[in-house]
Amino acid sequence: MRSDIIKRGWEKTPHRSLLRATGLKDEDFDKPFIGIANSHIDIIPGHFFLKEYGEIVKEAIREAGGVPFEFNTIGVDDGIAMGHDGMLYSLPSRELIADSIETVMNAHKLDALICIPNCDKIVPGMLMGALRVNVPTVFISGGPMAAGHLKDGTPVDLATAFEAVGKKSQGQMSDEELYEIECQACPGGGSCSGMFTANSMNTLCEAMGVALPGNGTVLALTPERTEMLKTAARRVVQIALDDRFKMRNILNEKAVHNAFVVDMAMGGSSNTVLHMLAIANEAGVEFDITKINAISKQVAHIAKISPALSTVHMEDIHRAGGVSAVMAEVAKRGHALKTDALTVTGESLGERIKEAKNLDESIIRPAENPFSPVGGLAILTGNLAQEGAVVKTGAIDPNMRQFTGKAICFDSQAEAIVGITEGRVKAGHVVVIRYEGPKGGPGMQEMLSPTSLIAGMGLGDKVALITDGRFSGATRGASIGHVSPEAAEGGVIALIEEGDTISIDVDRYELKLMVDEQTLQRRRGHWQPRKKAIDSKWLKRYSLLVSNASAGAVLKTEL
Q1: For the whole model, what pTM was predicted?
Q2: Is 4 a domain residue?
Q3: Catalytic residue list
């Protein structure tokens, strides 16, 4: 056992003495030591109940013959951090979470790991940390939230609440209507109910084989989720000493590919691109961002989930057969999925989905009748995004797939929110929000507030937005993020001037600034990077070490 380093031999008498202080008995030293990385935190709706989930997992591990050691990670709720400088800490928290798992697991030489994440940066942070440790690992999320409903039966979610602010600002919604949405949009515990970042990443854990079937769709705080917790706990004990199930043997090149396939089929959050690039980096998998479009061309978009112009939520996907049913439909259309990939439950991905049934073809479209013949995410390139930009194509109004407009520029999200609420943004504009990338932000803020304001003001099919920042999974519309190189490193986005023409063509994967190269070179000669005052020592360190979005915003290990 890996844990023998801390428990075997007379030289380890002091180590065993300390372990006995935690309650261990003689018989426990012959059992595998299992780390439980729990992201319990009271302020996040998907996490406040995870303390109880940790107890369920610990008890199941003991019953299965393992010794559980629970530890915690931090977490940031992106919705609560949205629209103010708290969002600067969201993406950087991913690195702290990964570092925490590496630190605890390697310092104590634990044999195996079970991770209990749920929301936002916590899932990818745990995946990255688990890849570094590379022991047998099982992921079991807290589960999605149920959709809310207004008194007339209309389904609502977090995106509804953000967009309601835009409607209220235009006098299109009463105080009473706004209050009802506030009270009903998030009706209880779980990761927000649509295909936002949390649920996107939890479904991709199924696609990558590191989680049980149902991980992304079984609702939180249900008996079915409780049984999944127990099953996952028993499984991690079964595989604790089996090297076949080391994390890098499961989450490898095939798994990364399968994650992007499912992402395309379900129209996941654009944040998944950022996180999967970082996860691939930790897995030692070379994955160029341009491969994503090649996968998109092979995979139809067959599940349209809120906020993608849809009232479907994760509970509906579960009733229709879950992620396994989505993968089974994808497999019918061709060979995009690597079905021979090993999963943590011991079978191949193909064996896992062999018996899956699509129980509602209005929710999960048949492969021959998709919402779109190509996937729900795309990478755009051109002189404005030489290293790429990301758009959630599944959430774009069809008449915005080709769009040309005049730039209106803001050098921060805060400036953009003021400009939008003051009515400066008009139909036909391309809103440019820059100096919000990983380095320039620092921290690459999500842009749900400005995109929701635009949608709430009725401009969602008349205005595009581009940024070197990123978007919440709840964002919809012609919102193009992760523009790389970013403004802070001298990318072309920094050289855009008010009134410049910007051309977007999603079907041709193009993002262009219609300004000649000579003019751009002249502007570059006068350009000075905007320097933001940063009080935080952590964010200063982060800005010095972080790469741009096209590399996954990972921290460099060498300057």
Answers
A1: 0.94
A2: no
A3: 472
